[in-house]
């Protein structure tokens, strides 16, 4: 069986070493030494000034919306994971969908302005597959209309634009450290902001708003993460460059083998690095996608239609809104298996089957 993804697991002994320390200290959660160390090491690795390690990528988005005190309409992309939209609705705001760019698969910045109303308060955009949005254009629009910007960077761990972390853009960026993501702490998330006051507020919010044992500074929630998760994050950080390098090799092998396959890859941001978190292909049409997916499944290979369907046509709590580009792309995009343990032979098999499906 070849799944679409498999979590990276480091040597068990390394995790056991961290467990020994946890047992000795008997400090399990509430920003213990491992969680603090992880924050320091992540700031250093990502080259950013401020960052908070939180429960998961979804709570990171919800806390971002809450901390910016957003109320009203938030312009967002329908081509993302459900948490991008659900967090907007969960926080009592209205998602307003703007279609994506057919090449980058990110929100089409040229279509944002026409969606702005007197109720618009923010833009929440996803760096889809880690490919950065048109951050300069979005920044310009936000400034002109006095809007906040949040980036869902769940896929964008380690990505840089002209040497600068993609997490430095927007008022707040978030990341997911879920087991299925490129870099993980089993469950986990990050909140990044350049604004020290906003960071302080978010840090209070993460811990019920506590400001001392009997005092509160803010409305808060439980957004903390545990020493067990931090330990996994610390170990995986040691391997992340090796993981990315391996995924690069696997991706290049796919590209070589699929030269004659009727599909294209998303057009990547020209000044940005890649983290090889996914291997998405936009197939010629949905018919080919269904043929390919069936043949793969018969052979116990599980690619994933990610993202499908569009968030604007599938959620019972948002208005049904078909969109030209998003619906077309969602119907024919397929993410092929890509993970650290995947072998060249397995890629060869996947590619042989795809070409066979196409030529049948
Ligand atoms: C995974 C993901 C999330 C949610 O992150 P969790 O850590 O699973 O809560 C949000 N947005 C996108 C785009 C994701 O892929």
SSE blueprint and pairings:
Layout: H1 12-25, H2 33-46, E1 52-54, H3 57-67, E2 73-76, H4 82-90, E3 94-97, E4 120-126, H5 135-145, E5 148-152, E6 160-161, E7 164-165, E8 172-176, E9 189-192, H6 196-206, H7 227-257, E10 263-264, E11 280-283, H8 286-298, H9 324-332, E12 333-335, H10 344-359
This protein binds pyridoxal-5'-phosphate (PLP).
Residues 56-58, 80-81, 83-84, 126, 152, 154-155, 176, 178, 189 line the site of pyridoxal-5'-phosphate.
Distance between the termini: 23 Å
CATH topology of the largest domain: Aspartate Aminotransferase, domain 2
Q: Quickly count the helices.
A: 10
Mean of residue pLDDT values: 98
Structural class: alpha/beta
Topology as H/E string? Answer: HHEHEHEEHEEEEEHHEEHHEH
The count of DSSP E runs of length 2 or more, i.e. the number of strands, is: 12
Query: For the CA atoms, what is the radius of gyration?
Result: 21 Å
Give a written overview of the molecule.
- With 360 residues, the protein is α/β, with parallel strands linked by helices.
- The chain has two domains: 12-235, Aspartate Aminotransferase, domain 2; 241-359, Aspartate Aminotransferase, domain 1.
- It contains ten helices and twelve strands.
- The protein has helices at 12-25, 33-46, 57-67, 82-90, 135-145, 196-206, 227-257, 286-298, 324-332, 344-359; strands at residues 52-54, 73-76, 94-97, 120-126, 148-152, 160-161, 164-165, 172-176, 189-192, 263-264, 280-283, 333-335.
- A seven-stranded mixed β-sheet has the order 1-9-8-5-4-2-3, sandwiched between helices. A three-stranded antiparallel β-sheet has the order 10-11-12. A two-stranded antiparallel ribbon has the order 6-7.
- Helix 1 (12-25) packs antiparallel against helix 7 and helix 8 (286-298) packs across helix 10 (344-359).
- The structure holds pyridoxal-5'-phosphate (PLP).
- The site of pyridoxal-5'-phosphate has 14 residues, from helix 3 and helix 4.
